[in-house]
């Protein structure tokens, strides 16, 4: 069970994905399946798996399209700090310094991480 190209294009209608062909989508789907596994039953349910998969594919597409345009920079804004004449530049934001996951570099990846935490968060006590 996987998200289809047509369903993905319907859900993620951003103009940035206009250049994502069905062939590229299929390659990104394979990569997403490598990350998520092929068993939707490991996630909360099939629908949950498909929604998370859509966000992961969108994240991968965003990175792929940026790289295809020759962007070799971090996908987060550069932050600078000037203290006593010493200028320090960070290629990632302060919130991401302790988060090594490249998933957090796009809003799609952050949403994927949110779904993954919900599915694999373990027992919760209320």
Give the key terms:
mainly alpha; 4 helices; flat; 126 residues; 2 strands
Placed side by side, the strands forming the largest sheet appear as 1-2
**Radius of gyration from the alpha-carbon trace, in angstroms:** 17 Å
Average residue pLDDT: 81
Largest sheet: 2 strands, antiparallel
Q: Based on CA inertia axes, which overall geometry fits? A: flat
Overall strand count: 2
Structural class: mainly alpha
Helix content: 40-55%
Oligomer: single chain
Q: pLDDT under 50 segments (min length 5)?
A: none
Strand portion: 5-15%
What would you say this structure looks like, in words?
The protein has helices at residues 5-11, 22-36, 46-68, 107-120, and strands at residues 79-83, 86-90. It is mostly helical. The protein has one domain (5-74, 102-120). A two-stranded antiparallel sheet has the order 1-2. A hairpin with a 2-residue loop joins strand 1 (79-83) and strand 2. The chain is flat and about 55 Å long. It starts with a helix and ends in a 6-residue tail after the last helix.
